[in-house]
Amino acid sequence: MRRHVLVAGLVCGVAAIAEATTLPQPARADTTPAAARTTRADDAVDLVQVDRDRLYHLEETEGLLIYDVSDADRPRLLGRHPLVGWPLGVAVRGDVATFVMRWGDVRTGGDRTQDPALVRALDVRDPARPRVLGELRIEGDVRDARATRDTLYVLSESRGPDVARVIVTAVRLDGSDMAAPRTVRREGAAGWLRVVDGRVVLAHTDVTRPGTHVDVLTDGPGAVLAVRGTVDLEATVGYGERDTSSRIDATDPAHVRVLGCRTVLCATDDALEIATVDVTDAAAPRVVSTRVVRSPDLAIATRFDGGRLYLSRRGSLSLGTPSTPVVVIDLDGPSSVTPVGQVVDGVVWNLVPVASRLLVIGTRGDVDATRERVFVEAFDVRDARHPAYAGEAFAGDGWTSSSALSSSHAVAVVGPTVAVPFRSWVFPGELRSGVALLDASGGTLRSFGEAPSSGVVERLVPYRGRLLAATSLGLWSIDVDGLRPPRVAPVAMARRQVGPGASP
Asked: Mind listing the pLDDT tens digit for each residue in 82-139?
């Protein structure tokens, strides 16, 4: 089905420039999904990390699983640290693995209760017997965690009868200071966190009026985590998916961009403001520019990508195939230029930049809610003013879900191959799990195969020419070259020691 270009649908006009300052042109961001690379400075902590020849997978019922992937065709389970709960992610530095749980699951006899959020550091020199170095209970509900080379920053929110707070907790990634974390508490909610060249930037709502406080915190060896400076924004930063750069992004070592709304709920056509804040001087951050566009809806899908902002209406259950606009905004271009985009058929869930392409991931259903398919549409966005439709493919069949709907970390790229996990329920009772393989070569996008798996595929990791699929049941190795059907190697099972053999 052909798509048509959407012109000027979400433009609100040119906002006033806070200061007549010429910003440096930031380099294009690394668009490789975070699961495809090892954790680096200012990475969002995620469920899977590869470190040297090991893959670490934090799974909600099995705990931390440690695999040997030195032979990418034959991964082996080396050990596990059992824990049940809602995992956020893991960061590995040397022989220490530090993980974050949104909450733990405590079971005593027949009872089951929810334990507070926690951070736990493990010595993994002997992966068969991980040893606890320390543990820290986190106040409130964990919203995000970001890791630098040596420090983990956890963002949480605590709501009481009289006051709401956002909390930043910092611990070393060698497990040395779990008993004495560094903490900053600020009144507010809807917090977002980035670490920019040694400065911790916290954007959070004001509890007394519309607007956003952008706090710059300093931290370092022997230092106390503390607020050095604050600048206030007119727009209110809101909630969104915890996925890389949803509401705040670091454009370069000196600047962050914050996306907020100038009204309380930010319904359709309300003003969204993109503020660029210079944080070079931690004691005196300042707004250097703003730009305003119209909000596509109350719930929005957003993605910063270097000098771009991708923006769409975010849906839920797809009853039928509504038309949904996806707009490309060139943040480094003149603010007088009208952003343009495309219209897709269906409900948009996620926007994933991959090199010169934008992958729009969503669902299409029927009006009776008996069928819902996951689709992937590709757009060539090399020219922000003229995004071009580049193809469409589907993952699964029947009633299908995918971890890629909520996390770009679940999408992987190996050469021209884009891999998207799926799980399908096909009437009258067939349940299929696997990875849809899409060919993005030749300026288009098409399906060329599926790799089956058991269990829910949570993350995909390109590694030494293979795809490693981390599932709820184990780790699968998939050989993908685009020239023949994908081959699935014997699986390293997390719950049992036997599994399906290699597929032909």
From this structure: 999 999 999 999 999 999 999 876 554 455 566 789 999 999 999 999 999 999 999 9
Say whether the peptide bond before residue 428 is cis (omega within 30 degrees of 0). Answer: yes
CA triple 225-226-231, angle to 5 deg: 135
Alpha helices (runs of H) in 97-184, residue ranges in sequence order: none
Instruction: Round the CA-based radius of gyration of the chain to a whole number and report it.
Output: 22
Q: What average pLDDT does the segment 259-283 reach?
A: 90
Distance in angstroms (rounded) separating the CA atoms of residues 101 and 98:
10
Fold of the 45-138 domain: Thrombin, subunit H (2.40.10)
The count of other CB atoms within 10 Å of the CB of residue 157 is 18
Phi, psi of 36 (to 5 degrees): -85, -5
CA 141 to chain centre: 18
For residue 105, the model assigns a pLDDT of 65
Q: Which CATH number fits domain 1-7+304-497: 2.60.120.260, 3.40.50.300, 2.130.10.10, 3.40.50.2300?
A: 2.130.10.10
Q: Does the pLDDT at position 212 exceed 60?
A: yes
Range with the lowest mean pLDDT among 336-345, 349-358, 400-409? 336-345
Residue 12, pLDDT > 50, answer no
Contact 357, 440 (CB under 8 A): yes
Secondary structure of residue 405 in the 3-state scheme: helix
pTM tops 0.90: no
Chain position carrying tokens 């994933």 = 352
Does residue 418 contact residue 392 with C-beta atoms inside 8 Å?
A: no
